[in-house]
């Protein structure tokens, strides 16, 4: 087993399930000292399981759609570990799948809140610590849905994440801070404990969601969804010193779909 993250303090957001949880499991096994963040209470269980296996992980619950939540998380992380080496911004995900003319103004705002603001806030909140320690690494989890169907507001949010990634990388390269993103394609995961959308799908909504799935598969050369490991590994590569000459890069992880 390699230990790419031995002694590194890593903040991983949205770590209670899905891609974020898998990133946490792999990072812990490689020596990371983890602060796992999620709005869902069962992020505590993820951290407890990792500690049971002898790894270092603590969990904190926060709403990262708010500045207060992001600021509190970074302050807690810094207080507990004395530094923050790596931030992985993973919170996000489309809530609705429908043609744009069916989105209400409230839904549009909620998509932007979910898939842009946690990354905006967390980057802003971590920078003072990374500047103080004269270095750091940020990996944002974007999406190839910047070119997709049935999720215009989500695509707009992730386009914002891409722009942020490049601009932050440019601005903070002189401070030894690298910023990259992965752009995942469709990813198979166990059923979500926290669904993106708790409402029941109407027949029409099922048809629209199916159109999203078909488009995702068709745009991938490999005509399939990826696995959690296939998403987590590229995120961890960008977070590691092996990517020391990479910054401002959006890496599509979607079987050939470039987004
Ligand atoms: N799964 C896919 O097919 C796919 C495809 C492309 C991109 N992505 C991106 O990958 C990332 C992870 O996707 P996933 O499918 O594993 O997500 P998911 O929905 O399974 O998990 C997201 C986690 O974020 C947490 N969360 C939601 N709102 C929060 C908030 N306000 N504050 C704190 N935590 C909050 C949830 O509780 C959940 O644990 C997302 O950014 C998503 O946009 C996923």
TrEMBL record:
Protein family membership: Belongs to the short-chain dehydrogenases/reductases (SDR) family.
EC number: 1.3.1.25
Organism (species): Pseudomonas reactans
Keywords per UniProt: Oxidoreductase
NCBIfam families: BenD, PRK12823.1
Descriptive protein name: 1,6-dihydroxycyclohexa-2,4-diene-1-carboxylate dehydrogenase
Molecular function terms, GO-annotated: 1,6-dihydroxycyclohexa-2,4-diene-1-carboxylate dehydrogenase activity; oxidoreductase activity, acting on the CH-OH group of donors, NAD or NADP as acceptor
Top EC class, one word: oxidoreductase
